[in-house]
Amino acid sequence: MIRVGLADDQPLLVASFATLIASAADMTVSGTAGNGHEAVALARAGGTDVLLMDIRMPVLDGLGATREITAELPGVRVLILTTFEIDEYVFEALRAGASGFLGKSAEPRELLHAIRVVHRGDALLTPAATRSLIARFRSHPERPPTPSPERLSGLTDREREILMLVGAGLSNDDIAGHLVVSPHTVKTHVNRTMAKLGAHDRAQLVVIAYETGLVTPEPSGRGRSVMPPPAG
C-alpha cells in the first residue's frame, strides 16, 4: 500500500486528490498539510511514502519544504504539483530533491500513475519535458551555466555514458536499446551512478548532467553531449 500525503493550501483540491487516491486499491491518504511547515511535520511523523507538494503555499513554500524533507528523510518521495509554465520553480524543485513534477491539469489516471512511478524510485520526467524544461532554464542569461566536470571523475566510462543519456531524457528501456544491454543492467548502472554522485534519485541525475556540462541544451530544446564518453 502506497501512503500518500497531500500538501496544498486549497482545500477543494486536497479533497479532490484525497478522493481520487482513496479510490485506488493500492493507495491510502496518510495525511494533509496546508503549508510547507505542516508538510515537513507530516513527513517527519512517518507513515508517508509519497508527498504531493504544491509550490506556492503560505508560511513555507513547497521548495523550502522539499529541501528540508529530502535532506532529512530520503525515504520520502516528493512529487511536485505545478504548471509547466513555471520552469524555474520546477528546476529548483528537482535540485531540492523532488522526484518529479506533474501539472495540476493532469488527468486522474496520470496522477495515480505518477505516484506509482515516484514510489518505485523512478523520476517522473518525460524526455520531451526534460529537454524543454532544462534547456529553457539553462539558457536564461541571468543564470549562466557553470560546468563542473570534475564532479564526474569517480564515474566509470559506462556510468558517464549512462548519465549522459539520462540527462538527455531517455528512459531505462530507451537506454537499453541504445546500448544493446538489458534494462536491468541499465538500472544497475543508474543506481551506482546515483550512489557515487550522492543523487537522491534519477531526477537529480538529470540536473547533475546539465550542471557538470556533460549535457548542454541546443537551441531546439534538445540535449546534446559535449563531453562524449571514451570508447570502450
Structure description:
- This protein is 48% helix and 15% strand.
- It is of the alpha/beta class.
- The chain folds into 2 domains: 2-124, Response regulator (Rossmann fold), CATH 3.40.50.2300; 137-225, Rossmann fold (3-Layer(aba) Sandwich), CATH 3.40.50.
- The strands form 2 sheets. The chain has a 5-stranded parallel β-sheet, sandwiched between helices.
- Strand 4 (77-82), helix 4 (87-96) and strand 5 form a beta-alpha-beta unit.
- Helix 9 (183-197) crosses helix 10 (202-211).
- The longest helix has 15 residues, at 183-197.
- The model is unreliable at 219-232 (pLDDT under 50).
How much of the polypeptide forms β-strand, as a percent range?
5-15%
- Structural class by sheet pairing and helices: alpha/beta
How many β-strand stretches? 7
**How many distinct folded domains?**
2
List the helices and strands and how they pair.
Layout: E1 2-7, H1 11-23, E2 27-33, H2 36-44, E3 50-54, H3 62-72, E4 77-82, H4 87-96, E5 100-103, H5 108-119, H6 127-138, H7 157-167, H8 172-179, H9 183-197, H10 202-211, E6 215-217, E7 223-225
Parallel strand pairs: 1-2, 1-3, 3-4, 4-5
Antiparallel strand pairs: 6-7
Helix pairs in contact: 2-3, 3-4, 4-6, 7-9, 7-10, 8-9, 9-10
